[in-house]
Amino acid sequence: MTEAVAPGLVAKEESVMKTYGVAIAATLLAAGPLLAQEPVQSGRDTLRPYTVAPQLQNSSEIARLLEDQYPPGLQDRGVTGTVVLLVQVGTEGQVRRAAVWESSGHAEFDDVATAVASSMRFVAAQSPSGPVAVQIMVPVDFKLRQDAPAAPQLTSYDVKPALLNATEANRVVDVLYPPQLRASKIGGRTVLWVYVGLDGHVEVVRVMESSGYEEFDRAAGLASRVMEFSPAQEEGEAVAVWNETTVTFLPDGRSTIRP
Predict the structure, then answer these.
(1) Pairwise CA distance, residues 17 & 75, whole Å
(2) pTM > 0.90: yes or no
């Protein structure tokens, strides 16, 4: 458990750890006139006019999914990249199909971006006669987050963050236990730093001490995302703090996540 330090005192953690984030943006496939490309049963494409472009509704959710699935091998090496997807958006704003239009040069980035695209939700494009299906290009940037907190700092507080959903968090750890390691009866322990925001949600996760297994470390990071806290407080005001969290994987079903 992270301990409070004296008011006004900030203890800096010397270890340098990487924090990653994902930015997404949608751009229209067709340039110039406002045209939508809609496949027809004959196999040929028909261009129809539209007046309102599709708008991505759940960009925060998609960014979180992409960040959670940042390929661990590339993450450890600090590799970044951009995938451009060709996304077909239907008349109800649903994603009908997504494919790589321009590769990042890393198959892992391409695969993650394509898989997550199915969870995108749009406000459908509009034509004079109503909603119309379109194809758009969606760039997905896997990159270092410039706006994330710096290396972990222990900030003063007088009320510790309290975990509100321990039962759920522990259940998720067990669900995410890597199947091959469980079958081999291999256990492990990953120590994380989690950054608990002003609203009590986990905003950033970093591996402080690896289990020695990439699969465990990845599962620990994903499990920690479901944790919900009452925020730390300093003189009655909520403060964002780093909190040490230990995730223990035991093949006998007693896996735990402890802040």
Answers:
(1) 11
(2) no
